[in-house]
Amino acid sequence: MRTSRNRTELDSAEENGASADDAVADFLRHLRDERQLSPNTVKAYERDLRQLERFLDDYLGRTGWWWSDTDIDRLALRGFLGWCRRRGLAKRSVARKLAAVRTFLGFLHLEGRIPVNPGRSVRAPRLDKRLPGHLTSSDVREVFAAAEAAAAENTLAGRRTLAILEILYGSGLRLSEVHGLDLSSVDPARRQVRVMGKGRKERIVPVTDSAIRSIELYVTRRAEATDDGEPALLVNAHGTRLSRRSIQSSVRGCLEAAAGARGLSTHALRHTFATHLMEAGADLLAVKELLGHVSLSTTQIYTHTSKERLLRVYRDAHPRS
Q1: Distance CA 147, CA 231 (A)
Q2: Residue 56 lies in a domain
Q3: Per-residue pLDDT at 129
Q4: Which strand (E) or helix (H) includes residue 169?
Q5: Is residue 127 part of a domain?
Q6: Is 302 annotated in the active site?
Q7: Does pLDDT of 202 surpass 70?
Q8: Are residues 209 and 289 in the same domain?
Q9: Which of 94, 121, 148 is the last residue of a domain?
Q10: Is 218 a catalytic residue?
Q11: What CATH number is associated with residue 44?
Q12: Which residues of 99-122 are buried (b: 16+ CB within 10 A; e: fewer)?
């Protein structure tokens, strides 16, 4: 049963023209304009919150509720997680939805729209440690040998694909970061590239000598396909910015043809970059900065990858293992 205080909160929200939808819209605007998250990330938040709204309509047995209703508590949010699981969602997907809900309710709490954030008391599903897919050193050699052979034909596509592989593996960039590179982003003299990462955060990343060479050879072919007014580094045959799908397709084709790595994507090269650095003894904080991670815990998964390799070496090499 709704308390008098809760009734007053709902009445006040209604008098001010506010609604549950208004709160979600304000939150999404905050993500887009203030935190400057990518459109895809904002859409993911919206999708998760709309699913929560649909669940709460059924759970509460009514529409027109407000987020400060006493019924929207820890039990209701746990019910939402169970509802997601019954719909066949994986634990990782459910955990992501809970994170979105917590962030939203935290926003409302900081704005003074709700007295507490009930999401803070809800425990996320326990996730299995999942090591990211990556290539072995021999796989990498095969991939680059095939890409270099194709680039030797001196076509726009061949030169471009090799440049993409060199940037992805040599600098550990995300697909979105490679897609957003402009010609002016690359500084050949300093052997570095200026990257716009998640949350519109810019960072400077070193690039390998082989990447610089492949970019310079590619740029010669690029000049024949586009005019001086196109800022994009990676262009298609029409001289406009190459799409993310095309980047993904060309990389996946190389991985499958050369290394037989079916199911791996451009992100596998980012994982490979980090894994190989860790296996070579790179400092975790340095890898964090190179990858553009906000939290060190995100980078720490690569320590598990390194430990798995050490354990495998130990079992293979020690006489009594």
Answers
A1: 25
A2: yes
A3: 53
A4: helix 156-171
A5: no
A6: yes
A7: yes
A8: yes
A9: 121
A10: no
A11: 1.10.150.130
A12: ebbbbbbebbbeeebbeebbbeeb
Say what the pLDDT of residue 298 is: 74
Compare 13 and 26 and report the one with higher pLDDT: 26
Q: Give the domain range for residue 149.
A: 137-317
Can you give the C-alpha Rg of the chain in angstroms?
A: 24
Q: Residue 262: its pLDDT value, please?
A: 61
Q: Which of the following is catalytic: 203, 244, 293, 304?
A: 293
Q: Is residue 126 part of a domain?
A: no
Q: What is the pLDDT of residue 3?
A: 39
Catalytic residue among 160, 221, 270, 288: 270
Q: What pLDDT does residue 126 have?
A: 77
Are 88 and 155 within one domain?
no
Cα 295 from chain centroid? 13
Residue 144 has a pLDDT of 92
Q: Which of 30, 32, 85, 174 is catalytic?
A: 174
The pLDDT of residue 12 is 43
pLDDT band at 11, cuts 50/70/90?
very low
The residue annotated as part of the active site, out of 32, 102, 203, 267, is 267
304-319: pLDDT as tens digits: 666 666 666 667 776 7
Residues 94 and 203 in one domain: no
Beta carbons within 8 Å of 1's beta carbon, 6+ residues apart: none
Q: Are 159 and 214 in contact (CB under 8 A)?
A: yes
Candidates 78, 85, 91, 198; catalytic one:
198
